[in-house]
Design a protein that fits this description.
Elements (H helix, E strand, L loop, with lengths): L16 H15 L6 E2 L11 H14 L15 H12 L10 E4 L2 H7 L8 E6 L4 H8 L3 E6 L17 E6 L11 H14 L2 E5 L25 E6 L1 H4 L7 E4 L5 E2 L2 E2 H12 L5 H10 L2 H28 L3 E3 L5 E5 L6 H12 L1 E2 L1 E2 L10 E5 L4 H14 L1
Parallel strand pairs: 1-13, 3-4, 3-5, 5-6, 6-7
Antiparallel strand pairs: 2-8, 7-8, 9-10, 11-12, 12-15, 14-15
Helix pairs in contact: 2-9, 3-9, 4-5, 10-12
The structure holds pyridoxal-5'-phosphate (PLP).
Pyridoxal-5'-phosphate binds next to helix 4.
């Protein structure tokens, strides 16, 4: 062929984190077939869907098999019933949203990656370390990237600085991988900064359901003025166990305007062109997850994971090891002992305690010397891991 390709792809680093982990674990298992390996690297939910959700899914699927209730293409932006359920969910926190500001998606990842479609060539500011999708999708579209460095000095919660320019700011709270969560005061400073500089915040709140403390906002729209400077992208994945079903939502307030363009209108156009909606049964399942009974049932799973996080945090508190997360997040992010590098500690932990975690360096340069473990394992495995860590650390 003799066509031109998007050579920005040359600038993306190989996504080798999880394949490298699997490679090292397989090698270890081959060499130590009797090792009882505990996996605390899991970034996926492990408990099944709640009954309320499954019932809705089954009922809607049955409707699809009956002439009178069959439905074809869904609306690109979501049926009104689910958009209304999302508006009501925000209303519980005192946030008033326009129905037209809600866009249903097949998960947060798609919209986090696709949002660049409606944005021009801006300065991009991305936390380091963080979930890699913001970085890779901006590199693919040839954007200039700046980093918001997280470290022990800011407890992995970077704040605005005077030298930062007008641009697009990605914030993730509670953060993956650090679990660090912005409080009201900190998020207010970001909103004030964005308004002062005419910047846009893209706020990833995929883990908001893990916040159980009144000091932390669940949504950026709890902060005054944020509808003039922020898009929020959210997910049913961790909140309701939809990683396999696929559903999320994005809020683009009607007020958001720049360069004489309304972002909501542009996203509508973008979605109508490139997205054909979420399947009807999944939308009904999502609606059920946001019902009073659904929220309660889904929360039982979240409490299960958070009990693991509490037990793990307790260990780090006892040992006096620096960590973030574990309180409003399923992730615990800690400093490797003896200044070990992330991958060095990965091998050490696997060898000495038969525990698998995730090296912090895989989430950005500032993740070096740090390590992520998660609370998605069973109580039994988490307790077993804690026993082993107690001896090792
Ligand atoms: N945002 C963050 C911070 C995540 O960690 C993840 C998944 O791990 C996602 C978004 C993706 O969510 P979804 O499953 O809705 O695509």
């Amino acid at each position: 062929m003799n066509i031109k390709v998007n050579t920005n792809f040359d600038n993306i680093s190989e996504s080798y984190l999880f394949s490298e982990i699997n490679k090292r674990v397989s090698k270890y298992k081959n060499e130590h077939p009797n090792a009882n390996i505990v996996r605390l690297g899991i970034g996926d939910v492990t408990l099944p869907l709640s009954k309320v959700v499954v019932d809705a899914l089954v009922k809607a699927s049955m409707e699809m098999g009956v002439k009178e209730t069959f439905r074809g293409y869904p609306p690109e932006y979501g049926y009104d019933f689910i958009k209304e359920a999302i508006v009501k969910y925000y209303d519980r926190a005192g946030i008033k949203l326009d129905l037209d500001s809600v866009f249903l998606s097949d998960g947060a990842k798609s919209d986090l990656g696709n949002i660049v479609d409606i944005l021009g060539d801006n300065e991009i500011y991305i936390p380091n370390p963080v979930y890699p999708v913001y970085l890779d999708s901006n590199i693919m579209s040839g954007r200039h990237i700046n980093y918001l460095y997280g470290s022990i000095d800011n407890n992995f919660l970077p704040m605005p600085k005077d030298e930062y320019k007008t641009g697009i700011y990605y914030l993730c709270s509670p953060n993956n991988p650090t679990g660090a969560t912005y409080n009201y005061d900190e998020l207010t400073k970001w909103v004030e900064f964005a308004k002062r500089t005419g910047s846009l915040i893209i706020y990833d709140s995929a883990y908001e359901a893990f916040i159980k403390n009144d000091n932390y906002p669940h949504s950026i729209y709890e902060i005054d003025g944020s509808k003039e400077c922020a898009i929020e992208i959210c997910s049913f994945s961790k909140q309701a166990g939809f990683t396999g079903l696929r559903c999320g939502w994005t809020i683009i307030p009607l007020e958001l305007k720049s360069d004489n363009h309304y972002l909501n209108k542009m996203w509508k156009r973008r979605q109508a062109t490139k997205f054909n909606g979420v399947s009807y049964p999944v939308q009904r399942a999502a609606e059920a997850a946001l019902s009073e009974a659904g929220i309660k049932e889904c929360d039982i799973n979240i409490q299960y994971y958070m009990e693991n996080a509490r037990l793990l945090s307790e260990l780090f508190d006892k040992k006096g090891i620096y960590y973030t997360g574990g309180k409003s997040s399923p992730y615990i992010w800690f400093k490797c002992p003896n200044n070990m590098k992330s991958w060095e500690f990965f091998d050490y932990l696997l060898d000495k305690a038969n525990i698998v975690g995730t090296p912090g360096a895989g989430f950005g340069t500032n993740g070096e010397n740090y390590f992520r473990i998660t609370s998605f394992a069973t109580h039994e495995n988490t307790k077993e891991a804690i026993k082993r860590l107690e001896e090792l650390l």
